[in-house]
Amino acid sequence: MAGLFGRLCASCCHRLSSSGYVGLPRVTANSFRFINACADEQNQKARGRIVVRVADGSLFMSMYLDLDGKSRMLNRVRTDAFEKTLHRIGLVSSVVSGNAEYDGDHPVVLVHGSGEKSGQPKEPGIPNIKAFLDGDILSIGEDQYIVSVNPPSVLGISLPTYISKGATVYPSVQAEFVPDNVFTYEWRRIVNQGGNTCEVVVSREEAYTPTLEDVGSSLSLTVTPVVEDSALPASGRTIVSAEVGDDVVRLGYTEFSAHTPEPHAVDSAKLRVVTYNILADMYLTEGFGGSSFSYCDNKALSLGYRDMALSRELPAYHADILCLQEVEEKRFQSTIMSCLRPLSYQGKTVMKHNMPEGIATIWRTDRFLYRDCKTYIVREEFMNNPLLADIYSSVPPWVRSELRNRNSVLQLTHLQQKSDGRELIVANTHLYYSPNADGQRLILALCMVRLLDAFKKAVMEASTASLPLAVVFCGDFNTIPERTVHELMTTGQVAPTSGFKEANRDGLNYECTIPTKFGSSLPHPSVPWTNYTGLFIGMLDYIYYDESVLKLHKLVPMPKEEVVREFTALPSFRFPSDHLPVINDLEFVKS
After folding, report:
1. What is the CATH number of the domain that holds 302?
2. How many domains does the chain have?
3. Angle CA(276)–CA(281)–CA(283) in degrees, nearest 5?
4. For residue 81, what are the domain limits?
5. 170 and 32 inside one domain
6. Rounded distance, CA 439 to CA 396, Å?
7. What is residue 118's predicted lDDT score, i.e. its pLDDT?
8. 276: closest CA among 329, 324, 338?
9. What's the CA angle centered on 538, arms 534 and 540, to 5 degrees?
10. Which of 65, 287, 372, 574 could bond to 50 as cystine, CB 3.0-4.6 Å?
């Protein structure tokens, strides 16, 4: 229909009346009596609704209505006189009826739906935005439509493409104009019996865990907005899932969740922090190195299966803070937050520079208040931020050239504990991966700590909290403990040229120092690796923390190697990523 409306807009000549309606014949006294009757009995006699959608800040308003059984949509400038819109509707109605031109057989009238002027045509010259109000009546010939402005609506529902028995399914709902985003849910099992299909209600909760009875059947889910005003129309939507499978593989996250059976209390002195590279789906394609995982079964590599595993895994860790890497925005909304939001989590993402994947920081809303979030494209800061000018001027020209091509980002999230007002900064990043780029990673890490320190000072200057500010720095640093990045973070300095030579290039004649050295749970015998693939096995992921405020209480160990190697390497049917999560229980130092 967009094309039809485009042709109509380009070709028609407006023939407008001066009395709030368009078309012939003229409105007579009998016509006014008819219109008033429609207004008085709008709920009984209206054929349907004309839905008017007015988004904040938009120059246009969209209108949706059914004509002769077909849904039609019209975009109009919100400040235009409404008579033009009525004329356009009449023209479209004529075309739908088979007339090439607007012949007047479908007079279009907009009347007041309530108040002293109920049943009377709208005054000419009123802009669209003020003419089409809730409860007004639009008449097209003998058909009447009640005007509904911005009704609460479900625009779409997303379910995992792979659904398995025992794996809780969390729907992702896209909606607009829904107060407080409150919905009703109805899950049904679709059963085929003797060639007939019937649906059995299995749950009215938001999330549903398929049972053995569901295996082999599909599920339908209907989501409807909840509105306090029962007279306000609400538009729901239904989606049908893929067939429920019978997952016989015990997922590997249970190796970790056995150590995280419960969340910490909201006023606990302990803080559970998780960092996890979840493996972006884009890296499973041939052009991005997907062939590196040729040992992995295609089903285990499928996004549907991996998302099913991830949606079971993340809630089981009961994290207070969760830092993720290689997060795609759609996956963040449809999978990650769909399973975490119902458990009182909130999060923010930032994509890498010119990349469709990035990082996400997620926190418990029952424990923390969100204060602020700053994001940095590190190469831009390296080249332009005066705070980093001394680093930029001191590194070799080839380092500057290389760093201009790096897309790493830094996310700094400022939170405050509800229980005692203590403030916390969570830093999250993902550094460049090349094995020969340790020097570049060192400079990136140095720049990031400088930015973190400046952010920390600004927070402290504005803070009224009595307890010391805590800092944790998580991420996939793509470096092993023996290299300079880990040395910088845990000792606070790296000597000139220390471990910096790359591909026979000049070393770095610059002493790297940071104001605060960080504590780290790694390396540790119980965590020999965090990345386990057919090409590389080693430790790349870390949780660093300010030792003056935090100390390590517990480090969750990695699974036994025979479990990780069961399907050769990662990812696998047991583990949905080529990385494994690093899970630390930290504890606030008593002041």
Report:
1. 3.60.10.10
2. 3
3. 90
4. 2-149
5. no
6. 11
7. 92
8. 324
9. 115
10. 65
For residues 372 and 440, state if they share a domain. Answer: yes
Contact between 504 and 543 under an 8 Å Cβ cutoff? The reply is no
111, 126, 149 - which closes a domain: 149
Beta strand 409-417 with 357-364 is unpaired
Q: Is the pLDDT of residue 33 over 80?
A: no
What is the distance between the alpha carbons of residues 80 and 126, in angstroms, rounded to a whole number? Answer: 8
Pairing verdict, β 531-532 and 409-417: unpaired
Same-domain status, 313 and 370: yes
Of the pLDDT bands very low, low, confident and very high (cuts 50, 70, 90), residue 94 is confident
Q: Does 270 lie in the same domain as 239?
A: no
Which band of pLDDT confidence, cut at 50, 70 and 90, is reported for residue 142? confident
- Comparing 34-38, 89-93, 262-266, 450-454, the range with the smallest average pLDDT is 34-38
Each residue's pLDDT tens digit, 518-551: 999 998 999 999 999 999 999 999 999 999 999 9
Last residue in a domain, options 149, 173, 191? 149
What local confidence, expressed as pLDDT, does residue 36 receive?
39
- Residue 144 near residue 38 (C-beta atoms within 8 A): yes
Q: What is the DSSP letter of 121?
A: B
CA angle in degrees (0–180, nearest 5) for 435-438-439: 140
d(CA 460, CA 170): 39
Asked if residues 339 and 311 have their Cβ atoms less than 8 Å apart, the reply is yes
Give the CB-side neighbour count of residue 514, counting CA atoms within 13 A: 27
Residue 285 and residue 261 in one domain: yes
Question: Does residue 110 sit in the same domain as residue 200?
Answer: no
- Start-to-end CA span in the chain (Å): 68
Same domain (yes/no): 145, 231: no
Helix, strand, coil shares, percent, the chain, to 5: 25, 30, 40
324 shares its domain with 408: yes
Closest CA to 157 of 71, 53, 240: 240
Can you read off the two tokens belonging to residue 306?
């991996």
pLDDT digits (tens, 9 = 90+) for 341-360: 999 999 999 999 999 999 99
Q: What is the CATH classification number for the domain harbouring 185?
A: 2.60.40.2700
46 alpha carbon, distance to own chain's centre: 39
Identify the pLDDT of residue 110.
95
Give pLDDT, residue 179.
Answer: 83
